[in-house]
Write a structure and sequence with these properties.
heterodimer, A: mainly alpha, 57% helix, 3% strand, B: 211 residues, Alpha-Beta Plaits, five-stranded antiparallel sheet, four-stranded antiparallel sheet
């Protein structure tokens, strides 16, 4: 492989996290199977849930930054998001999806994630 | 079946000599570079092979890379597909003319550890604070780097950083400005000791090929 590094830090590990996924991604793109229909539907639904989750979390962070919430409200809100995050991770795993699979290209608005 | 590599200007310089030999399908000032599709197993190795062909083409011509694995029935199908979007593709080719893609990825370096995507804590408030802090450090990294780098680029696309990354983006840079872009990265690295900056390229303009 030719040298493509124009500039590299001494520690490259943080950049190598998606390498193990490559064979998986390649195969998923190409092999269509009966399961892919169900998976496609799950991907669509989870993407929408992820969109809502992100919007709500951003709103929550804004409200916390502006100091409009009591400690108790903050705690409750945080717990809700934490549990939602965990549940999403479980669902992703169940359907063999990665975070990147739940990304959406929103055109001029950029990408969702 | 025919496998597509890239859309280029027609006429252009002679095709590079690779195996299997490349073919040109001319379409009204443009050409699709393709080859009979082999039944090779899809793997990282065949992906690199595709990359090598596109880069050999890129060495002496402007091009729009076609997504790896794009196959059509025959030359007529290729001509039809390109012809349907001829003006769109010609405009996209004009946008990347004379430029290449450089990729920049940034992570925390040394003692400043990145917060994980989903922090492990039992407190809801603490969870939100960690999320907020992670977002703030991503924003800081982006501000420090993206502005000076995009000033050197014709266009840029911010991507989604994959934790523990803080920032990633691709830049469309004039071929003869690649060196000064790399120098700017080196300068930014010196000014930001808490960050590790990875800059790779030149790549075909993958992030800028879509109309």
């Amino acid at each position: 492989m030719r040298d493509k590094l124009l500039h590299a830090p001494p520690d490259l590990d943080p950049f190598a996290t998606d390498l193990p996924r490559i064979p998986d991604v390649l195969n998923r793109r190409v092999n269509a199977d009966p399961e892919s229909l169900e998976k496609g539907l799950a991907q669509l639904v989870l993407t929408l849930v992820e969109l809502l989750r992100q919007l709500m979390e951003r709103q929550a962070l804004r409200r916390i930054d502006s100091g409009g919430l009591s400690d108790e409200q903050e705690e409750r809100l945080g717990r809700t998001f934490m549990e939602l995050d965990q549940r999403m991770a479980e669902l992703r795993e169940e359907f063999g999806l990665t975070e990147e699979d739940l990304n959406l290209d929103l055109g001029p608005l950029g990408r969702l994630l | 079946m025919i496998e597509l590599y890239a859309i280029t200007d027609n006429p252009g310089p002679p095709l590079p000599d690779v195996a299997p030999p490349l073919e040109l399908v001319p379409i009204d000032g443009l050409a699709a570079v393709c080859t009979p599709a082999a039944d090779a197993e899809v793997s990282a190795a065949t992906l690199w092979r595709y990359e090598e062909v596109v880069e050999a083409l890129m060495a002496d011509r402007d091009l729009l890379p076609v997504r790896y694995g794009t196959r059509l029935d025959d030359e007529r199908a290729v001509a039809r597909a390109v012809n349907e979007r001829r003006d769109e593709l010609a405009a996209a080719l004009d946008r990347v003319r004379g430029a290449v893609e450089l990729s920049v990825r940034v992570a925390a370096a040394g003692t400043e550890q990145a917060s994980p995507a989903a922090p492990h804590t039992s407190s809801g408030a603490e969870y939100l604070r960690l999320r907020s802090r992670a977002k703030a450090s991503r924003d800081r990294a982006a501000r420090a780097l993206h502005e000076p780098l995009s000033a050197l680029a014709r266009a840029s696309v911010e991507g989604r950083p994959r934790p523990p990354e803080l920032f990633r983006a691709t830049y469309l840079v004039e071929r003869d400005a690649v060196e000064s872009f790399a120098e700017e990265v080196a300068g930014l690295q010196e000014a930001n000791a808490g960050l590790g900056i990875l800059c790779t390229g030149p790549w075909p303009p993958y992030s800028f090929a879509e109309p």
